[in-house]
Amino acid sequence: MSEKQAQAQSPVQDNRNLEMKMATLEDRIVRQEKLLEPQLNRLRDMKAVQSKQRRKDDTRRKILYGAAFLLSLDGLSETARTRKIAEVERQIKAPRDRKFLGLSESVEEAQKEMASRDTQHPGLPFDFGG
Q: What is the CA radius of gyration of the chain?
């Protein structure tokens, strides 16, 4: 077929060629997606493991800092210890957390309680082994 004849193909023939190319391209895309799927699942699993480890590390970090803080209270006078605990308690603002720790519902209530608390024998609201 000469070059002029090839250019003179009917629009129907051109359309068929395009459809065949598109079908082939779609098939290739489907195949690639099937190949990618297990890799994407593995990647998703790895990210989940990473996220879980970050949460564990964050929890451990909080526990270690909390334990170190509690140990630092051991060397303080009762008044200084009470003051430090009150400082920490003021930072706990969520009612749910305050309730869990046995604190007053609000920081304002806690401040009123602290003002009226007997400072002769203040105690910690928990055991810390110190």
A: 35
Which residue type occupies 94?
A: A
Q: Is residue 3 within a helix (H) or strand (E), and if so which, with residue range?
A: helix 3-7
pTM of the predicted protein model: 0.55
Contacts for 89 with CB less than 8 Å, ≥ 6 apart: 101, 103, 107, 110
Residue 112 Rama label (left phi>0; alpha psi -120 to 50; beta) = alpha
Q: What Å distances lie between residue 91 and 27, 70, 85, CA to CA? A: 60, 16, 10
Q: What is the dihedral of CA 60, 63, 68, 69, to 10 degrees?
A: 140
Angstrom distance (rounded) from CA 89 to CA 26? 62
What confidence tens digit (pLDDT) does each residue in 97-111 have? 999 999 988 767 766
